[in-house]
Amino acid sequence: MVFADPGEARARAEHVLRSGPSPLHASVAHQVLGIWQRDFGDLRIALRHLRRARDLAARAGSADREADVLATLGVALVHAGRTRQGLASFERGVARGSGHTRARVLYRRAYVWWVLGRHREALEDVRRALPVLRQAADDIWTARALTLRATVHLALGAVDRAVADFTAAERLWDTTGQEHDKADAVESRGLAAFRSGDIPAALRLLDEAEERYAKLGTPTYNLSIRRCEVLRAAGLAPEALAEADAAIAELDRIGGQSTRKAELLLAASWAARSAGDAHTAIARAAVAVRLFAAQRRTWWETHARLELIEARVAAGRRSGRLVADAAAVAEKLASFGSPAAPEASLLAGRIALALGWTADAERHLAVAARSRYGGPPPARVTGWAAQALRARAAGSRRGVLEACRRGLDVLDDHRMTLGASELRAHATAQGAELAALAQEVGLAQGSPRRLLAWSERWRATVLSAPPTRPPDDPALLSGLTAYREIAARAEAARMEGRPVPALEREQRRLEREVRSRTRHMGGAAAGAGYRFDVDRLLDRLGDGRLVELVVVDGRVHVLLCGQGRVRRFAGGSLDQAVAEAGHVQAALRRLAHPGAEARLPLVEEAGRRLQDLLLAGAVPHLGSGPVVIVPPGALHQVPWALLPALRERVLSVSPSAGSWLRARETEPPPEGRPVLVRGPGLATGGAEVPELAGRYGTATVLEDDEARVPRVLAELDGAGLAHLAAHGTFRADSPLFSALRMADGPLIVHDFERLARSPYRIILSSCETARLASVGADELLGVVTALLPLGTAGVVASSAPVNDAAVVPLMLALHKGLGAGLSLAEALRDARAALPGDAVHQATGWAFAAFGAA
């Protein structure tokens, strides 16, 4: 019962002990309490119960009872880090037990071998136990043995064997009432899905397992370890680190399993390094190494040593000692049959290259490169990265580009299996090195056209295909509604000066729920992505120019596309440009309020400095036609209309040349109607909306209580033009929860992704609606980038806080231009020119940009 209904089992065991039981029955009761404490509570208390159970079994004179308790005690001792004592307990248990009981003892020793990372011994004990358990028709323990064997297969990279065992075990679990074991089986299937490269299925199954554990009231430390691994692979390292640290703190609080703590420390180190915190990664990995060594868990210790070396390299350390350490770890992992062995060889090769040890590097990289043809996507990408580095060391530019192309193809196919735009964006981080190597070669070849093609190859890939439309999942829909209600209540409470901690906690919980549900979505078939065509771009530009800014080794390179060719100009330092853009954004925020006029010349001077850094020698060649700017993610906050060479131009911005081209080729809906929305709380009350309603006689106008999210979404779907006057909030910590405030609460990016087709043109007249978060290799997440893949060809939005009153004349002039048949970029250019010349109005005009091509 302890794995069917743990709480009830504990209560019954305590009742038995209060009733003055015989030694035999008391032994069983203490064993149950020991198991409960071992897996869900304090290990010190568990060991006291289990030793008492062992002594009572000996007094009862039952060899099988004693063998059974010795096995349970052995597991607890190993989890407490007392490996030698635990294995000795198993030796006695195997010797004392017979038949069916001995098979159960062997199964539990196999489990301990797995915990210790001794996989051959684990498989051997399962091999000996399974026939006896099957012959005894012991479905529960047979299912446990199959589940364990599958888990060992996963550790060795044998995914197909694991899936077969999990399937067989699940058929048996369906015939039992073992709810905790069933939850464990779902968790294990989640791990198998992850090893197969199916991250959405892995997240869905792990969430399902967590729900099952929650109903039983049991902790989920092992689940946390597995979810950390999946989250890290999905590029969600900060979440993985938070989960690992929370689980470690809880284990410390209750005195839980030392083995689980070591595994969580290793997971935390992985996550910290992936999140860019090398020093935290080093600290966590060093403690994990010590714990694993003390627990005699060589397999785990070796993996922790690999992570420690990775973290030290990430912190900037390079030495011959690190090369030797990485090589030794790679050799040991290979002897274990660990799938991580190629990663260790790649690491040794990287360090050797950095030191100029080309012969050593070639030896290690050649070993790592063998993984490029088999295994899950991360292993193949590791192999292609090693092959690209080999080719670069050998001076073969062609070899570098071929390896980069093949590696990015693997990641392309993997990325398209992800339905959530958030996961697609983060997944690109795995290809950052390959993309950078290819750009490096493209630059060295002196071909701007090739540099453009390679820069586009791994830029704004999230926009290359629409995200999977969220299913009509009642749980997701109710979660979005509840989130909106709680967020609205929290906002109202803040405005009234009332405390909101409880509401904020509930809001964060609902955010996690919505985020989890959307991540469960699978994507399109492999190979469904978009391929960029330079010739088509040049043809579509006509007399216009497209300026793509490419960063190679910290320097900006300007690729000027137009007149049938691509030219390159050298720009300045990326770091300088980012710092300058930050100063400009701060100044624009101040200029949004009257009284800051003296700063206007400073802002204009900063615009000139930005132009020197970002456009440099390309300025005389911009021509007189429209200009499209394609900045890297780090420069998305630049107010491009502030740059002197762009101030009087028809100017638009795009996350990539490919996304501009797709927007340019997007056809407007045949009967696209205008939709005007006015949200609550605007200083001007959205004063432009009533006047625009008079201009557009057929427009749908939503205001006051009608401007509720479900109604707004229904009207936006398939609209030709939408104007939303509503307060905007940008969430840098969670960009897909960036929002526009409606009458019933926030309209978030996740809501927009439910549209079958977003409006062909959309104007967001509120603050900060164009702000984006840079994630992955060079991806941007926010309201604008959510709309572009869903059918929107053009967006006007602001990247900074703006003055509400100054927005009204800008918006009226913008719509006047649209009514005259102009594009969004043309209308915005003319609207800026029509504004008064004071600082507030000028800053407002610069803050807005046209995105896309409509």
Short description:
It comes from Streptomyces rubradiris (Streptomyces achromogenes subsp. rubradiris). The chain is an alpha/beta fold and 854 residues long.
Describe the structure.
Residues 605-852 form the CHAT domain. The protein has 854 residues and is an alpha/beta fold. 61% of the residues lie in helices and 9% in strands. It has 37 helices and 16 strands. The strands form 4 sheets. The chain has a 6-stranded mixed sheet with strand order 7-6-8-12-15-16, with helices on both faces.
What keywords describe this structure?
single chain, 854 residues, alpha/beta, 6-stranded mixed sheet
Radius of gyration: 31 Å
Low-confidence segments: none
Biggest sheet character = 6 strands, mixed
The largest beta-sheet arranges its strands as 7-6-8-12-15-16
Category by helix and strand content: alpha/beta
Cα end-to-end separation: 65 Å
What would the principal axes of the Cα set say about the shape?
A: globular
How much is the average pLDDT? 91
Q: What is the overall number of helices?
A: 37
- The helicity comes to 55-70%
Number of strands: 16
Strand percentage, roughly? 5-15%
Topology:
Elements: H1 6-18, H2 23-40, H3 43-60, H4 63-79, H5 83-96, H6 99-116, H7 119-135, H8 139-155, H9 159-173, H10 179-195, H11 199-216, H12 221-233, H13 237-254, H14 258-274, H15 278-294, H16 298-314, H17 320-336, H18 341-355, H19 358-369, H20 377-393, H21 397-416, H22 421-427, H23 432-444, H24 448-457, H25 474-495, H26 501-519, H27 534-541, E1 545-552, E2 555-562, E3 565-573, H28 574-591, H29 600-614, E4 627-630, E5 651-653, H30 657-664, E6 674-678, H31 688-695, E7 700-703, H32 709-716, E8 721-725, E9 728-729, E10 739-742, E11 745-748, H33 749-752, E12 761-764, E13 773-775, E14 779-781, H34 783-787, E15 794-798, H35 804-819, H36 824-833, H37 839-847, E16 848-852
Parallel strand pairs: 1-4, 4-5, 6-7, 6-8, 8-12, 12-15
Antiparallel strand pairs: 1-2, 2-3, 9-10, 10-11, 13-14, 15-16
Helix pairs in contact: 1-2, 2-3, 2-4, 3-4, 4-5, 4-6, 5-6, 6-7, 6-8, 7-8, 8-9, 8-10, 9-10, 10-11, 11-12, 12-13, 12-14, 13-14, 14-15, 14-16, 15-16, 16-17, 17-18, 18-19, 18-20, 19-20, 20-21, 21-23, 23-24, 25-26, 28-29, 35-36
